[in-house]
UniProtKB/TrEMBL annotation:
Amino acids binding Zn(2+) 1: 77, 88, 188
Sites where the protein binds allantoate: 210, 268, 281
Species the sequence originates in: Actinomadura coerulea
Cofactor note: Binds 2 Zn(2+) ions per subunit.
Protein name per Swiss-Prot or TrEMBL: N-carbamoyl-L-amino-acid hydrolase
Entry keywords, A to Z: Hydrolase, Metal-binding, Zinc
One Pfam match: Peptidase_M20
Sections of the chain in a coiled coil: none
Catalytic EC class: hydrolase
The enzyme's E.C. designation: 3.5.1.87
Cofactor: Zn(2+)
Matching InterPro entries: Amidase_Cbmase, Bact_exopeptidase_dim_dom, Peptidase_M20
Length: 399
């Protein structure tokens, strides 16, 4: 099964025919179909399929002598953001299977296990915490908090993983699996315009986080309620959106309000409550923290005259990730000195780098667009990514 044949198999799964965007939320039918595809590809190659307690999967190519430790793990994620692109996540997984095929065709016999990982809920699109699967694996989130996370329909993570056949009380760090992995190298589509060559290597992931703003007012009739009698949470919310842009400009960061929930969300009803999420990222922790503080302050000032309350909760935060220098330089030397660049996007590699040496390969995206249907990588660059990943795996999996 060639790269393009695998790609063609996955392409239609969870794709919105009208927009071309993907809706592959963790443990929903399209993502379950992607998981089944992953297991089929592993079986097709005689790879050992491992499930950790958190819904993460690893397809293993073991050495002939049965070695199980010192593994080189690659892979990425299968889930998407709402209306996401085809490449964010799946490119790393399809490229990994294609790289294993290439090494086998060349008669390579790895001295170390090579694993292809598929991490659960990397986008946090269903339960709100990004990289939830790798955070649980790495011990970077309290399993009790994870169990209680809920999706838009009120289903808890515990219920959903239970229905998927997992034990919700077994979620959490898998020290045995982590102990068998020597390093992790994730291939990912580049999500900006910085890469002008087919393949690059990541230097860092900038600090980034997600915050939830809850505005509580008083629901009422849109037609019979005079302006002085209103406690409309939509107004301080509107200020918060503008304040986010202005704070980002002041602090040299980026801030996005991309998701909002209005209760009861009726055309002729003054909302009783508005919940909005802020995504803020930037080159330094203090700039990101200042951005959030300034948005919070602006929201509270705007809420006061409308007798609306404002609650702020940090849902996830990731400090700067500087990838392991030795591994980065080794990967770069294998690839012959490709560009090194930071990213503003979070990744499982960033989470795992707290527990083991991790590196990332980026594949050029000529559109520079991501988390949208226009996300793209040219066929020639996809294959350049496979060649690069194969060379890196071959190098790292030697004795
Ligand atoms: O949101 C991110 O940075 C990543 O795509 N999960
Ligand atoms: Mn993403
Ligand atoms: Mn991704």
């Amino acid at each position: 099964m060639s790269f393009e044949e695998m790609w063609a198999e996955l392409l239609p799964v969870g794709r919105d025919a009208a927009t071309g965007g993907y809706h592959r939320f963790a443990w929903t039918p399209p993502e379950l179909e992607c998981r089944a595809w992953f297991a089929d590809e592993a079986r097709r190659r005689g790879l050992g399929l491992e499930h950790d307690p958190n819904g993460n999967m690893v397809a293993w190519w073991y050495p002939e002598d049965g070695t199980r430790t010192g593994a080189v793990l690659t892979g990425s994620h299968l889930d998407s953001v709402p209306g996401g692109g085809a490449f964010d996540g799946p490119l790393g997984i399809v490229s990994a299977f294609a790289a294993v095929d290439l090494l086998r065709e060349r008669g390579v016999r790895p001295a170390r296990p090579i694993g292809i990982g598929a991490f659960a809920e990397e986008e946090g699109a269903r339960f709100g915490v990004a990289c939830l699967g790798s955070r649980l694996l790495a011990g970077a989130i309290d399993p009790a908090r994870a169990r209680g996370l809920t999706d838009a329909d009120g289903h808890t993570f515990a219920e959903v993983v239970h229905n998927a056949g997992l034990d919700p009380h077994a979620i959490g760090p898998d020290e045995d699996l982590l102990g068998r992995i020597a390093c992790y190298v994730e291939l990912h589509v580049e999500q900006g315009r910085a890469l002008e060559e087919p393949v690059g290597v990541a230097s860092a992931i900038v600090p980034h986080g997600r915050w939830r703003f809850d505005f509580a007012g008083e629901g009422n009739h849109a037609g019979t309620t005079g302006l002085p009698d209103r406690r409309d949470p939509m107004l301080p919310f509107a200020h918060m959106v503008i304040a986010a842009r202005e704070a980002a400009e002041r602090n040299g960061t980026v801030a996005t309000v991309g998701k909002v929930r209005v209760e009861p969300n009726g055309v002729n009803a003054i909302p009783s409550a508005v919940t909005a999420w802020l995504d803020a990222r930037g080159p330094a922790d203090d700039a990101v923290r200042r951005t959030v503080l300034e948005v919070d302050e602006a929201a509270r000032i705007a809420a006061r005259p409308h007798r609306v309350s404002v609650d702020l909760a940090e849902e996830s935060y990731t400090e700067i990730v500087d990838f392991n220098l030795a591994l980065r330089d080794r990967v770069r030397s294998v690839l012959g000195g490709v560009p090194v660049l930071p990213t503003g996007a979070g990744h499982d590699a960033g989470v795992l780098s707290a527990r083991l040496p991790a590196a990332m390969l980026f594949v050029r995206n000529p559109t520079g667009v991501s988390h949208a249907p226009e996300e793209f990588a040219e066929p020639a660059d996809r294959l350049a990514g496979v060649e690069a990943l194969a060379a890196v795996l071959d190098d790292l999996a030697r004795g």
